[in-house]
Amino acid sequence: MTGGADIRAQLQDKASALGFDQFGITSATVGVDIAEGLQEFVTKNHHGSMDWLADRLHHRSDPQALWPDARSVIMLGLNYGPDEDPRQLLNEKSFGNISVYARGKDYHDVIKKRMKTMARWMVEAYGCQLKVFVDTAPVPEKPLAAAAGLGWQGKHTNMVSRTLGSWLFLGAIYTDMELPADTPHTDQCGSCRACLDECPTDAFPEPYKIDARRCISYLTIEHKGPIPHEFRRAMGNRIYGCDDCLAACPWNKFAQVASEAAFHARVELDAPHLGDLLDLKDADFRQVFSGSPIKRIGRDRFVRNALIAAGNSGDASLVARVQALTVDASDVVAEAAEWALNELKTEGGAP
User: Fold this and answer.
1) Which of 299, 285, 341, 334 is nearest to 318 (CA)?
2) Which residue has the higher pLDDT, 185 or 307?
3) CA triple 221-23-135, angle to 5 deg
C-alpha cells in the first residue's frame, strides 16, 4: 500500500491531535550502520547482563527482520522535560534522586494508549496493517528516530532535539504502507563534550559509545547483583537512573516543561527521604510504586540502591535503619547495608 504527501499530512495531524510533540517517517529498510553499531556494543560486552539485547540482535538491527511486511516506520516523540535541573537534588544527600522519566506515571502506559488510538484510526482510514512498539520489543528506536528526522543521537547515545533537548520519549509504528520518508537529522553536537565530561563514572569510552556496565542507570535498574564497589561513591544519592549526561546538554536551553500531566513528578517521588525508602517492605514497595516504571525492579534492588545512597549521605540519623537491614532476607540488601553502615560509622567515609 502506497501513501503520498496527503496521507503523511493526515498522519502528522492525527499525531499532533493525540498530543505527540514530534512526528517523522523513515523507511523500514535501514542502513547497515545500525546493525554494525549494535554488534560492536554486544561484542565488547558493553551491554553487561542485558542478554535480551544480544539474544534478539538480528531483530533489533532490522525492522523487516522483526516483521517482514514492514515498509515504513512512523516515529513519534513525547516531551517529558522537567521544571528544573534534576542535578540540583544531588546536593541533598539525605534524599534520593530518581531519574526524571520515572518520577511520574509509567510512560509505557501513557504513550501506548495514544499510539493504539492512532493505530486503530490508521487501520480504519487506510486499511493498512501495522504494529505498535513502546520500548517493549527489539526495535532500534533511537536510530530510527534520527533517520525519521526527530533529532540526532548525541555523544551520550541518547536522542537530542533542537526544540526539546534531551527529554524525549519515543514510540514506533511499523506499517505495511509505503510512505514518503523524512530527511534524517544532521548531528549538531560539534566539538561539545558536556555530556561526556559530566558522567560521574566515565561510562563513555569515546563519543557516541557507552559501556553500560559503568552507567549508573544500568547499575541501578538493570544490574541485579551487588553494585561494584568502584562505582558506589560516584552514585551519590542516585537511587534509580541518572540524568547527568542528559541534563548537561546545551540544547536543553530550548527544552520545555512537559505539558503531559502524567509525566509531572509525583510528590512522593520528587525528593523522597532515604529513611522512608529504607523502611519499605515488599508490600509497601508495590503500593508506593504502583503505576510507576520503578516497580519492575522490585523492592530488593531498589532498597539496595537506597542503601548505597545512605552510605554516601553522611546522615547519622540513618544508622539504625541501615543496621536493621544488615540481616535482611535478601543477600543483596544485607551486603549493601553492611557497606553503608561501615561508611556511616567511618569518620570521613561519606563524601
Assistant:
1) 341
2) 307
3) 25
**Cα–Cα distance, 48 to 30 (Å, whole number):** 26
Give the H or E element holding residue 308: helix 298-313
CA angle centred on 181, ends 166 and 185, rounded to 5°: 30
Would you state the torsion angle of the CA atoms of residues 63, 67, 72, 75, taken in this order, to the nearest 10 degrees? -60
Please report, to the nearest 10 degrees, the dihedral formed by the alpha carbons of residues 33, 34, 38, 44 taken in order. 20
Please give the average per-residue pLDDT across 272-281, as a whole number: 96
Q: Is the pTM of this model over 0.90?
A: yes
Residue 36 CA to residue 8 CA, distance in Å, equals: 30
- Partners of 73 in the beta sheet? 26, 174
Residue 306: which of 101, 96, 92 has the closest Cα? Answer: 96
Residue with cell 535503619: 321
Tell me the residue type at 172: A
What backbone phi and psi angles, to 5 degrees, belong to 79?
A: -75, 135
Q: Catalytic site residue 135? A: yes
Strands 22-27 and 159-160 come out as unpaired
Long-range Cβ contacts of 317-322 (<8 Å, 24+ apart): 317/94, 317/275, 318/94, 318/274, 318/275, 318/278, 318/344, 319/344, 319/345, 321/275, 321/278, 321/279, 322/278
Residues with Cβ within 8 Å of 301's Cβ and at least 6 positions away in sequence, in order, are 220, 221, 224, 332
**C-alpha–C-alpha distance, residues 79 and 136, integer Å:** 19
Instruction: Specify the length of the chain in residues.
Output: 351
Phi, psi of 135 (to 5 degrees): 60, 30
Pick the catalytic residue from 135, 187, 276, 328: 135
Instruction: Locate all alpha helices (DSSP H) within 62-193, ordered by sequence.
Output: 63-66, 107-126, 141-147
Among 231, 279, 229, 224, which Cα is nearest to 96's? 279
Residue 46's CB is within 10 A of a number of other CB atoms, namely 20
- Which three three-digit cell numbers place residue 46? 558493553
Distance CA 170, CA 306 (A): 29
Q: Out of 145-159, 257-271, 298-312, which region has the weakest mean confidence (pLDDT)?
A: 257-271
In whole angstroms, give the CA distance from residue 320 to residue 103: 28
